[in-house]
Predict the 3D structure of the following.
Amino acid sequence: MGTTLLECEGGKLRLPDRRLVLVDRADGGNLVVIPPRPVWERSELSPAELTLFSFLVAAAGAAMLDTLPQLSGGCVNYWEAGNWSLHDDAAPRGKKRAREHRSVHLHLLGRSPDARHPSWRWGEAPRFPGFADRYEWAAGFARLTPSECAPVVARAVALLTTRYGVDARRVAGGTPCPTCSYPTVGPCEECRST
């Protein structure tokens, strides 16, 4: 998973992995929300955790709509993922049980009325590739840029603290990484690893 842009009691808002961006930035963009602790199914979260996770998801989606020009007149699809981790060819190879191998994360998939990729045509359901083709399918998709992520993070922080009443002291919006300029919480995981 990519860099953490925002962190709060509801979880983390992150960039997707560079190799597996699901929607190109020009077609609407893709961000990922991770719950406050690893679970295989969202019903495993406590009522308070689920509430705070839902606040983060809603604030991040609204922030994308409020700040990304490519989403003017568009929407966000919310997709709870983790299915590819269950594929027989995913590590470890073989049949898997969801409880042991799935890790809930929610993709925020921006849907632009002007989307060009056939998988993201306006008014159509998204089309995802099979497990074996996922990296090739996503290879041409670019992540949201640092200059697109910064206002998304700022707006999500504002929504969390005003609309949803989250204590501002418990919300960490990222600051620009000196190397890549993405807003990051703590050291930039990607720049540190390269």
